[in-house]
């Protein structure tokens, strides 16, 4: 389901789906959104605490549900990631989105929400969040999110990577945090990978665990059905006392190179300042050739 572009003067909500966050933590993000001409509405979960979480599950659930049901709220931003989205996901009633479709924006732990929305037939945005916005090194991440929310998504062009696998693919863009994609497998939030362009990112993982998760997805038959694969940033990786002996590109190639679809590496998406926004559920064309990589959405906004 296509969602209308934002307009200046629109109201947008910020809620805490997962880890707790204070109002002070997101002041820079609020300033960015207000500079875009938006009216920011803070949920009750902002500043709330329940141990690690931004308030009890019931509070975070009610907060998001209220923003979802309110037709005056045109987009909902998750203030930050962390952990906690899956604890409330199955209790959310998404029926109001049929009448008033709106953007839901986030990444990391919010991958579960974005995939759940895709499974229900809604588009969403994998992009930076208020906690991270407005910093000196996040300008491009902020700008690409603004472009995606207010206008037609812009095409991305990247330099060639020596380990890319060449080719062209067209399909809906899906993906996000690798561990979250694995966590939601077999649940109502799981997505069909067939004919899709999958993108992956993660942070702070062990090399062997990236391999283990990819083996699991491969055994499920998900990797062989892709149209193309975009490998984002796997930042702050860890190794075991006995080195695993493979980096992330090699792990990816071990499990995916035999399927014949294009694969590009080092795409600027993930837990890094240059976290370019991606539109989940919209059809795009991925071209990987010797000159470089392009990812361009093919379906116009209605």
TrEMBL record:
<dbReference type="InterPro" id="IPR040449">
    <property type="entry name" value="Peptidase_S66_N"/>
</dbReference>
<feature type="domain" description="LD-carboxypeptidase C-terminal">
    <location>
        <begin position="170"/>
        <end position="286"/>
    </location>
</feature>
<protein>
    <submittedName>
        <fullName>LD-carboxypeptidase</fullName>
    </submittedName>
</protein>
<dbReference type="InterPro" id="IPR003507">
    <property type="entry name" value="S66_fam"/>
</dbReference>
<keyword id="KW-0645">Protease</keyword>
<dbReference type="Pfam" id="PF17676">
    <property type="entry name" value="Peptidase_S66C"/>
</dbReference>
<dbReference type="InterPro" id="IPR027478">
    <property type="entry name" value="LdcA_N"/>
</dbReference>
<keyword id="KW-0121">Carboxypeptidase</keyword>
<keyword id="KW-0378">Hydrolase</keyword>
<dbReference type="InterPro" id="IPR040921">
    <property type="entry name" value="Peptidase_S66C"/>
</dbReference>
<comment type="similarity">
    <text>Belongs to the peptidase S66 family.</text>
</comment>
<keyword id="KW-0720">Serine protease</keyword>
<dbReference type="InterPro" id="IPR027461">
    <property type="entry name" value="Carboxypeptidase_A_C_sf"/>
</dbReference>
<dbReference type="InterPro" id="IPR029062">
    <property type="entry name" value="Class_I_gatase-like"/>
</dbReference>
<feature type="domain" description="LD-carboxypeptidase N-terminal">
    <location>
        <begin position="12"/>
        <end position="127"/>
    </location>
</feature>
<dbReference type="Pfam" id="PF02016">
    <property type="entry name" value="Peptidase_S66"/>
</dbReference>
């Amino acid at each position: 389901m296509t969602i209308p572009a934002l307009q200046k003067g629109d109201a947008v909500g910020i809620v805490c789906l997962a880890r707790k966050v204070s109002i002070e933590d997101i002041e820079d993000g609020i300033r960015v959104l207000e500079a875009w001409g938006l009216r920011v509405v803070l949920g009750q979960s902002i500043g709330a605490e329940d141990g690690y979480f931004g308030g009890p599950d019931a509070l975070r659930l009610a907060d998001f549900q209220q923003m979802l049901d309110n037709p005056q709220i045109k987009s909902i931003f998750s203030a930050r990631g962390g952990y906690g989205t899956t604890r409330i996901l199955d209790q959310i009633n998404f029926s109001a989105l049929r009448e008033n479709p709106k953007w839901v924006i986030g990444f990391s732990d919010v991958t579960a929400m974005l995939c759940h929305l895709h499974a229900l037939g809604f588009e969403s945005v994998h992009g930076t969040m208020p906690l991270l916005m407005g910093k000196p090194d996040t300008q491009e991440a902020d700008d690409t999110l603004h472009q995606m929310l207010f206008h037609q998504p812009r095409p991305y062009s990247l330099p060639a990577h020596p380990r890319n696998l060449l080719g062209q693919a067209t399909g809906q863009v899906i993906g996000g945090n690798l561990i979250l994609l694995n966590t939601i497998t077999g649940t109502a939030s799981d997505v069909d990978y067939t004919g899709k362009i999958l993108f992956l990112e993660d942070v702070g993982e062990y090399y062997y665990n990236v391999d283990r998760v990819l083996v699991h997805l491969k055994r499920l038959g998900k990797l062989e059905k892709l149209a193309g694969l975009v490998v984002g940033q796997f930042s702050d990786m860890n190794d075991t006392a006995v080195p695993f002996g493979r980096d992330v590109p090699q792990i990816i190639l071990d499990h995916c190179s035999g399927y014949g679809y294009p694969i590009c590496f080092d795409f600027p998406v993930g837990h890094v300042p240059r976290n370019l926004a991606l539109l989940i559920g919209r059809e795009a064309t991925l071209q990987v050739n010797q000159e470089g990589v392009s990812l361009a959405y093919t379906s116009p906004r209605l």
